[in-house]
Amino acid sequence: MTPHRTPRTRLAVTGALAALGLALTGCAGSAQASNELGTLTAGTLRIGTTGDTKPYAYTDQGELKGFDVEMAREVAERLGLEPEFVTQEFSALLPAVANGQLDLAAASISDTEERRGTVDYSSHYFIGYISVLAAEGSGITDDESSLDGKRLGIVQGTIQDSYAQENFTGAELVRFPDNNSAVAALTAGTVDAHFLDFPVAEEYAEASGGSQSVAINVAVPEFPVGFPVKKGNTALKDAVDDALADIVADGTWLEIDQRYFPDQPVPEQFQPDGE
Fold first, then answer.
1. What are the residues whose beta carbons fall under 8 Å from the beta carbon of 7, sequence distance 6 or more?
2. Distance CA 192, CA 45 (A)
3. Rounded to 5 degrees, what are φ and ψ at 176?
4. Secondary element (H or E) of residue 75
5. Domain match, 158 and 184 both
6. C-alpha span between 275 and 184 (Å, rounded)
7. Cβ(66)–Cβ(260) under 8 Å?
8. Which residue in 28, 30, 51, 59 is deepest, having the highest Cβ count within 10 Å?
9. How far, in Å, CA of 228 to CA of 93, rounded?
């Protein structure tokens, strides 16, 4: 016959379960407290990027490569975090950071006042050019007025989108989700030109076999590139800033830059210490 459990025994069991619950809660609390950088997952840096913006971020035989990809990996390593990359359309990156779906984004994303309305930015790690890739026979020259009346492709939400709206007012702007679809439209003749980053434009021009060329280059030092982070996550932003400063100071930035932009001048702010 099974003996009846006394109230004292029930209390002992209840107390043991409560103690176990407190212990588990304490472990969870310790794990949460250990995530001092406020990343989505302790020990991991979730990074949004694109897959078709060579040499910034692109996929080569299934491997994600590029200047921004290497910079983000280097930052993660110096923060003691495992990088986890998520490829998306460019226009989805900033909303994903703002909504807390990504820790940061890395895809040559220029720092603008408008964008700072929804995200914070790390310190800057790149300054570049944007260019118009035109079809041969389109009549587009290095004179920006030659774009009047032309159909100009742009990737939605990019700095080119903002710049074209303000400066290429005579062109008909046609928006695409990514560079590949825009250049496919250029090749098919449904647009006359595509507006994109200078190194990427050069890659497409070379691959076109002479049917496309870079017609217009625009220097954009007023649109430096940084890593967008969620607004208010100062712990992560400050840590990324410190990592970037070290990457520049010890010459790692220059090594990465020269792999992807060997012919571009290096701004003074990105020279290693002692150079």
1. none
2. 40
3. -130, 160
4. helix 67-78
5. yes
6. 43
7. yes
8. 51
9. 9
72 and 102 in a single domain? The answer is: yes
CA distance 240 to 228: 11
Total structural domains in the chain? 2
- Which residue type, as a one-letter code, is found at position 260? Y
Closest alpha carbon to 46 in 101, 109, 122, 95: 101
Pairing of strands 172-176, 151-155: parallel
Beta bridge partners of 174: 153
Distance, C-alpha 64 to centroid of its chain: 13
Domain hosting 204: range is 129-219
Is 270 exposed, middle or buried, given 0-12, 13-18 or 19+ CB atoms closer than 10 A?
middle
| Of 218, 227, 216, residue with least CA distance to 126 | 227
Per-residue pLDDT of the chain (275 residues; tens, 9 = 90+): 444 433 433 333 334 444 444 344 444 333 333 589 999 999 999 999 999 999 999 999 999 999 999 999 999 999 999 999 999 999 999 999 999 999 999 999 999 999 999 999 999 999 988 999 999 999 999 999 999 999 999 999 999 999 999 999 999 999 999 999 999 999 999 999 999 999 899 999 999 999 999 999 998 888 899 999 999 999 999 999 999 999 999 999 999 999 999 877 788 899 998 65
Confidence (pLDDT) at 29: 37
pTM: 0.73
Residue 272 is assigned to a structural domain of this protein: no
**Residues 166, 174 contacting (CB under 8 angstroms):** no
Q: Report residue 262 as tokens.
A: 């060997």
71/140 same-domain check:
no
Residues 6+ apart with CB under 8 A from 217: 129, 130, 131, 142, 198
Contacts 24+ apart (CB under 8 A), 172-175: none
